[in-house]
Amino acid sequence: xxxxxxxxADPRSPRAESGGAEQENRSSRAESRGAITVGTEHVTALDxxxxxxxxxxxxxxxxxxxxxxxxxxTQGSLETAVALVAGAAAGYVLVPIDPKLGPLELxxxxxxxxxxxxxxxxxxAVAGRIAVETLPLTPALRRYDGPVGPTREVDDEPxxxxxxxxxxxxxxxxxxxxxxxxxxxxALARAWRWTAADTVVHALPLFHVHGLVLGLxxxxxxxxxxxxFPRFAPREVADALRLGTTVFFAVPTxxxxxxxxxxxxxxxxxxxxxxxLLVSGSAALPQRDQLKLEALTGRRVIExxxxxxxxxxxxxxxxxxxxxxxxxAAIEGIELKLVDDQRRTLGAxxxxxxxxIAVRGPHVFAGYLNRPDATAAVKDADGWFFTGDLxxxxxxxxxxxxxxxxxxxxxxxxxxxxxxxxxxxxxxHPSVREAAVLGAPDADLGERIVAxxxxxxxxxxxxxxxxxxxxxxxxKRPREVHVIDELPRNAMGKVVKAKLRLP
Length: 503
Ligand code: MCA
Ligand code: AMP
Fold this sequence. Notes:
By secondary structure, the chain is of the alpha/beta class. It has 14 helices and 26 strands. It has a domain at 413-500: GMP Synthetase, Chain A, domain 3 (2-Layer Sandwich). Residues 164, 209, 281-284, 303, 305-308, 327, 387, 389, 401, 404, 411, 416 line the site of adenosine monophosphate.
């Protein structure tokens, strides 16, 4: 078995594993610069090894051995990133929490995942929000200077519980194992020749796969480095690329904003030109943004496609020829097929036959926490996971995503939002009698959340937007609220959302 991260033992200590020359090299290389940089602060690989030991010692002494579930409030600080890596390396099961979660989701997650303890860089900011004890991260994780031990091995035990929305109901906790993560990252590293020489820059949240698994864990697993911005600003990312980071991970909304910034700011163009690799994911990258960026910078953005439950399924490789709208072929070591409505395999590789993407392999999650029913609905007895995404495939196995089965799932800024979740939150407002929510095309966000409501007492749309932002994560708020007299329904009384869609 191999270690999850390459800083398993202090490369300078006699406890360093024999035969770990490559590991030692990688650690030493990353040690000479920041393994993780946030703002003006950074930690080295050796600091991460110390933090792992410190976290393990602290939690074990408090009665929480490795294997216990710990929640981490993913506040925007270096300490947060360190705690996530250290917690994973020390063998804990991490439940990353969006610090902006509203009470509806937060209470559900804490009850469902039942973490024994929580960590926060700034416990005061989250005081009283959950019944679990919240320990401060600073400064203990960086003061430890005792001996360091091995990190967690790549095993089939849970590593992460990540919450993801469905069409209705509250988010479900996807349980990802250490093997899921390690296998997926190694395959991507090969596809992109992602090595210890790379420094990734990203400005994604650390409570979803994209920012946490790819951006943070990926950078550390390859022995490289990460420059993390807790907030996205085009110029900051471009400056980081210009000053030596080599790889950029972002959602399409960020590329859209970069393409706009590049029109007026030559430094943004300059930065993007410097990158070795620009990768987009979490939602479809519109052609117009791709072309605009290419025209301005001469660089192409490559796409990869994934889900919380499967991590990354497809990726355009470094040497693949450019092809519009293609998210690449299945990554090495996984099986991918298209299926029809009855889940029968479609053999066509004609770039036009449409089917649902199904995948199988060591990257597919263990299941949803406490929801065997929901797991059985998406994963069959043979291990195939049915994604709900509709696509076609060409003769080379390259996949083009065309849409998704469930119209009640909205991808807004790369965040998945269930229409039912937003409707339920709106119905909690005393003035709302009925609500229907859908996604409308949006040049910046991909899709924007639009709500149609029938009111019992007059209320301003802004009040309802703020109400949803206070109950759920603010990114789940409707960007538009339309007050109507009644919702269109069919003969069975079911709301016909198609009749609400904007022209
Ligand atoms: C605005 N705000 C509010 C309100 N309005 N707060 C309370 N009440 C309101 N009414 C706050 C927001 O919380 C936010 O604060 C700020 O104002 C701006 O909000 P918003 O307009 O929503 O954000 P944005 O600027 O449009 O964000 C665009 C973004 C963001 C930066 C692209 O959508 C983003 O970070 N997306 C990444 C999503 C992601 O990582 N998805 C990966 C899923 P503040 O600025 O303080 O937050 S993993 C996945 O999909 C798979 C595995 C894959 O393939 O990757
Ligand atoms: P999430 O549950 O937040 O992990 O979102 C997963 C969903 O994001 C997938 O089912 C797809 O619908 C969408 N997605 C991710 N990457 C891409 C991409 N490159 N192109 C189109 N859709 C994507």
